[in-house]
Amino acid sequence: MGVIDKEKAPVKTGSIYPAPYAAMVAGRTSQRLGQAGGLTQFGVNLVQLAPGAVSSLRHWHHREDEFVMVTEGVCTLVMDEGETEMAVGDCAAFPAGEANGHHFINRTDQAAAFLVVGSKMDPERATYSDIDLEVHMEGGQARFTHKDGSPYEGEKE
Q1: Distances in Å between the alpha carbon of 98 and those of 69, 94, 118?
Q2: Minimal CA–CA distance to 116: which of 64, 38, 53?
Q3: Rounded to an integer, what distance in angstroms lies between the CA atom of residue 36 and that of residue 105?
Q4: Which of 5, 56, 145, 149 is the most buried (most CB within 10 A)?
Q5: Torsions phi, psi of 47, nearest 5?
Q6: Nearest 5°: phi and psi at 149?
């Protein structure tokens, strides 16, 4: 395919998370650069975070590697061992199967962005570190469960 026209790359807003978790990632968008380039073996996304936004629930992948590089502003990386402020050019890697929940927060009053590259394993499972939730991905479909494998049916009133 060659050169990718970023302006034509699909942009994903919102979340696949069930309520009440979907609302927690308001202010995040993801530009699907790898999809725009026809890539099938790994994903490449430019994630933009508005001031105060969170990239995701803190999570780790069972089968997928992730690599991140900050491209704009300042993001705070939150992992099991603590927090690290990351600026433009700073990188982080999250090997598959390493149970180190992570996500990024924009704690500044300016926009921030990072490029994330990840393998596209199918099936895949991700565990959310701070809540009793896992996502199982297969064939492009997400199924949420509790960590014990029982179905997640949403929050009870």
Answers
A1: 19, 7, 14
A2: 64
A3: 26
A4: 56
A5: -95, 130
A6: 95, -10
